[in-house]
Amino acid sequence: MRAIPVSLAALAAALVLGGLAQAAERLAGARPDISSIEGGLWGEMDKVEAEARTRGDLNRDPALNAYVHEIMCKVAGPHCADLRVYVMDRPYFNASMAPNGYTEIWSGLLLRASDEAEVAYVLGHEFGHFVETHSLERYGAQKTRANVALAASVVVAVAGASSAAGAATSGEAQSIIDATRGTIDLIYYAQMAALFRFTREQESEADLLGQRRAGQAGYDVAAAMESWRGLIAETQGSDFKRVRRSESRSSIFDSHPLSADRIAALEVQAKTLRAGGERGRARHRAAIRPFLPAWLRDDLRRRDFGQTLVVIDRLAAGGEDLGVLNYYRGEAYRLRRGEGDLAKAREAYLVASGQADAPAATWRELGDIHRRDGDRVAARAAYETYLAKAPQAEDAWMVQDSLSSLERSS
């Protein structure tokens, strides 16, 4: 790579520093000059936000959105009016907050959070990036490279649900998107990854800021450590050796490395903060309960059933929603089909069937298992229960056919 002329590099750096200074001086609620570095970033993020409002995976449920917005406002305080939060139905642990106030929180995060305090900590973490202008620093660095090299490209690898590891990562995202080389989704994720892939130092800074913000909002600061411990446990539970051996990461953008050092830093700070505080377990579960079936189905599509089982175990620890959770535990074992998994699936479905909230599909799966095991009586009873509970199901005719076959052979 050829050397960069000192004068050109200095000029680009001056432009970036000037933009950062302007951001620091800007009052809450004021838009930056469109000709500034920050103004350019705001313009780009306005476009991404407009795209988010039209996406099919935007969760528009008023109660869920109100719940998340309330937590964000507790954490953000006076900046609440500057922020707009969008709940996206995506099965990964991720949240982000852009300099223009555009905020996303993904269903995978809400599913994995044990309580409201953990959600508050993560939103506080993202608010830390916001108030410290980390994404502006990232954007400024990209602009510097573009001005100096006179060329840049986006290099992003977003793995879908069929990824062997069930996770997605990104390379270093530059400032120019080659729209002819990807789909609309790829461009969308590239724009996000370019701004929200922070340095380790920035992540550590946001960790501590987020914990302090959550504590000031009245939440238990211990939730910060528990959130990351849960994600590390999930990584260690992966079905894939390369995931288990890698440094734990929680984000689709590969930007949140999890380590004992980060947790230790949070533990040290927690000793200096007010002990106790709200956890909000019941309120959080009530907010996400209507979405558990859909979000767990999405998580299974990632094809890392070991990780999904860890998530289900964490959700089941409080003894709630055991019908739904055991049904999807059974689904994870059934789909994985490892040694002993079908027996574990059968046991999970049986446990689910004893709960009032068990999905009707529990009895369809039990019918299939009993039929395969040669227990015609149990299979017939399970199929009949399924048809009684879900007479309008799309596959009702198939189950009826299986039932008729059992009756003919008896």
Estimated radius of gyration: 24 Å
Q: Can you write the helix and strand succession as a string?
A: HHEHEEEHHHHHHHHHHHHHHHH
Q: How many extended strands?
A: 4
What helical percentage do the residues reach?
A: 55-70%
- The total of helices stands at 19
**Secondary structure category:** mainly alpha
Low-confidence stretches: 1-27, 144-184, 250-254
Largest sheet: 4 strands, mixed
Average pLDDT number: 80
Distance from first to last alpha carbon: 78 Å
Shape: elongated
Strand line-up across the major sheet: 1-2-4-3
Number of domains: 2
**Percent of residues in beta strands:** under 5%
Which labels suit this protein?
2 domains; mainly alpha; 410 residues; four-stranded mixed sheet; elongated; Serine Threonine Protein Phosphatase 5, Tetratricopeptide repeat
Can you walk me through this structure?
With 410 residues, this protein is mainly alpha-helical. It has two domains: 265 residues, no CATH class; 118 residues, Alpha Horseshoe (Serine Threonine Protein Phosphatase 5, Tetratricopeptide repeat). Helices cover 60% and strands 4% of the residues. It is built from 19 helices and four strands. The protein has a four-stranded mixed β-sheet, sandwiched between helices. β3 and β4 form a beta hairpin. The N terminus is likely disordered.
